[in-house]
Amino acid sequence: MILDLFAGPGGWSHALDVLGVRDVGLEWDAWACKTRSAAGQLTVRADVAMYPTWPFLGRTRGLIASPPCQAWSMAGKRLGLVDQPLVHQAVEDLAAGRDTRERLLASCRDERSLLAAEPMRYLHALSTVGEPEWVAMEEVPDVLPLWKQYANVLRGWGFSAWYGVLNAADFGVPQTRRRAILLASRVRAAQPPEPTHAQVDEPDSLFGAGRARWVSMAEALGWGATDRPVPTVCAGGGPGGGPEPFPSGSRKTLSDARERGTWMPRPDGVVLRSRREGAGWAARHGTGENRAASAPVPGFTAEAHRWSWSLRSNNQANATIRSIQEPAGTLFFGHRANECTWVAEPAAAPAQDTDAPAVPEPIRITAREAGILQTFPADYPWAGNKGQVFGQIGNAVPPLLAAHLLAPHLPVSLNATDFTLAA
């Protein structure tokens, strides 16, 4: 089997499904388990830190692990960095067959920090029977020193190992999501996959085909064609969110605005003109409070100025803002301050003799849109309420990135066109 620790809603599992292979996922979160069940993925609902290792001995080909990142992520308090010496000690002890987790956990500032050491408990047990054949692990970049420690241990057990930071956009994901990756194998040289995309188009050369330009949000969401929708304008759709699913009669789309000449995309040549804004953003775009479902629907008039749209990665003062003609910044969710919103700007300065129209309110990204930007299918069966679904999406590994990491170990050929996004 392929064992997937901290399996979440199925980022690694969906990649394996596309590649024609299945895994068994261990996951504690009830709603992530419901999502996995709806997607037809094999799941054991269990606490990875408490589950025994003996059921997997003698039958595990590959081990996957994406430990929870909340203790390390820039979206949180990052107490994992404070606890990092304790986590390194736990990995050292577990690699030697000593279980000191209970004592070390009592000293951790964030109890989730020590979960990053759990894969070593499984790896040590499996190593006693010469398993697994390969390992693939993923976390936020600050965990890279821990992956270095894992790599050194695995090399001592006969693995070839590589660790480093990869940008998901280099592999066709419409998001510049940087992640620390560990790859190890007993049967082949461990090395990162070859990037398929670059920040700008690369021409073909004598050394091979050039790489395509990074995939933009507009391309992934299908907003470049006239028959595709663009961001949804809805009652309660400001940065604080609103009722979802949307109340009957409250839904409009920016495609209406495009038909009236009030929406215009950025030129295709714009590449990563992202920016970070301070408190002035709130003054220009509103307070972010919810509006009642009965409030008037934000709309556009024939006299409105044309707008260009961007995605603001969260509601914090230093949030990254990217045009829809670029990849998104890293998507992360989990609490009110980390909601992604579509924001509008005038596509051109208004004439001096006309009154500038009010800027449309920010529009909260939908779960479908967020899932697509993570390279999940548009119809992926997310389970739970709005907050639970967004939390699953933000914590998942993008399946397309996962497929690039896993394909050489299976081994199978990866056809990126199998990852159909917008529908």
CATH architecture of one domain: 3-Layer(aba) Sandwich
The best one-word shape is: globular
The name of the CATH superfamily of one domain reads Vaccinia Virus protein VP39
CATH fold naming of one domain:
Rossmann fold
Describe the structure concisely:
By secondary structure, this protein is α/β, with parallel strands linked by helices. Helices cover 25% and strands 16% of the residues.
Tell me about this structure.
Helix 3 runs parallel beside helix 6 (144-156). The longest helix is centred in the first third of the chain and has 17 residues, at 79-95. The chain has 423 residues and is an alpha/beta fold. A seven-stranded mixed β-sheet has the order 3-2-1-4-5-7-6, with helices on both faces. Strands 12-14-13-15-16 form a five-stranded antiparallel β-sheet, with no helix packed on it. Strands 8-9 form a two-stranded parallel sheet. It is globular. It has helices spanning 11-18, 30-38, 79-95, 101-105, 118-127, 144-156, 217-221, 254-259, 280-285, 367-373, 386-395, 399-406; strands spanning 2-5, 24-27, 42-45, 62-65, 134-139, 160-167, 178-185, 197-198, 212-213, 232-234, 251-253, 275-276, 307-312, 320-323, 341-346, 363-364. It has a domain at 2-201 and 397-418: Rossmann fold, CATH 3.40.50. It is built from twelve helices and 16 strands.
